[in-house]
């Protein structure tokens, strides 16, 4: 049976997936903390290669040579892309990746410069400012514009509690290490690879929905959700994962 390996996004940890894992039972699942997050709080990295090296070791230690699919949300999806399509690290029996609201990469140096400046702005704020204040501004960004006041307040409280142990310095370091400005553009590799890649996006997440449609990705749209579909509509998210797993089983029999 294929194992699902979950990678969370920036500001989260492996517990973000607990409700999804519970709904998927008895499908075997493994949740991995990214560097600077959760139980990997003391793991330091400075770039994508070091990040995927750590992730690779975690996967190989937990799975040995068992077949698996990586499910990555946002930053976790970008790390999955780098691991699968860029890194030369051993990947064991990686059978595919599922991307949830993950950016495939920037197309120009101007975009990369602008993104680097934006990420450094947030990195400096996370390192120096009051955590609640920074998170309040963070969740005002356009990608979270679908959230109402109550939803925004709930997620700010959750993230503040999660990050209180370390403050925002760890997030600052992760932003510097894995800025989108440092990521290769994976559009052509996504189109040409034989590795199955699936894309999940919320119907209210207009930016990433356009990425999926414009690049003709093999995608699924989750109703009544924005950027974080697995939190906002977990039942539909799990339904899609089950469809993907059935697709793998059918192809294997053929």
From TrEMBL:
Its EC number is 4.2.99.20. Residues 3-233 form the AB hydrolase-1 domain. It holds the Pfam family Abhydrolase_1. Gene3D superfamilies: alpha/beta hydrolase. The keyword Lyase applies. SUPFAM superfamilies: alpha/beta-Hydrolases. Keywords: Lyase, Menaquinone biosynthesis. Catalyzes a proton abstraction reaction that results in 2,5-elimination of pyruvate from 2-succinyl-5-enolpyruvyl-6-hydroxy-3-cyclohexene-1-carboxylate (SEPHCHC) and the formation of 2-succinyl-6-hydroxy-2,4-cyclohexadiene-1-carboxylate (SHCHC). Monomer. PANTHER family: 2-SUCCINYL-5-ENOLPYRUVYL-6-HYDROXY-3-CYCLOHEXENE-1-CARBOXYLATE SYNTHASE, PROTEIN PHYLLO, CHLOROPLASTIC. NCBIfam families: menH_SHCHC, PRK11126.1. This is Putative 2-succinyl-6-hydroxy-2,4-cyclohexadiene-1-carboxylate synthase. The lineage of its organism: Bacteria, Pseudomonadati, Pseudomonadota, Gammaproteobacteria, Pasteurellales. The gene is menH.
């Amino acid at each position: 049976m294929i194992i699902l390996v979950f990678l969370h996004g920036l500001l989260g940890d492996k517990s973000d997936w607990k409700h999804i894992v519970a709904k998927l039972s008895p499908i075997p699942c493994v949740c991995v903390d990214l560097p600077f997050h959760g139980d990997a709080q003391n793991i330091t990295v400075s770039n994508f290669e070091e990040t995927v090296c750590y992730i690779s070791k975690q996967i190989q230690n937990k799975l040995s040579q068992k077949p698996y699919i990586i499910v990555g949300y946002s930053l976790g999806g970008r790390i999955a892309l780098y691991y699968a399509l860029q890194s030369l690290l051993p990947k064991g029996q990686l059978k595919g990746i599922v991307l949830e609201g993950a950016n495939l990469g920037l197309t120009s140096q101007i975009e990369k410069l602008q993104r680097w400046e934006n990420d450094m702005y947030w990195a400096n704020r996370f390192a120096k400012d009051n955590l609640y204040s920074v998170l309040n501004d963070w969740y005002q960004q356009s990608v979270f514009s679908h959230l109402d006041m109550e939803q925004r307040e709930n997620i700010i409280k959750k993230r503040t509690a999660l990050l209180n142990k370390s403050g925002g310095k760890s997030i600052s370091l992760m932003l510097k290490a894995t800025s989108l400005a440092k990521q290769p553009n994976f559009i052509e590799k996504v189109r040409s690879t034989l590795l199955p890649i699936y894309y999940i996006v919320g119907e209210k997440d207009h930016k990433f929905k356009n990425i999926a449609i414009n690049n003709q990705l093999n995608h699924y749209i989750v109703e009544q959700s924005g950027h974080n579909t697995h939190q906002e509509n977990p039942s539909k998210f799990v339904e899609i994962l089950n469809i993907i797993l059935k697709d793998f089983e059918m192809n294997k029999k053929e």
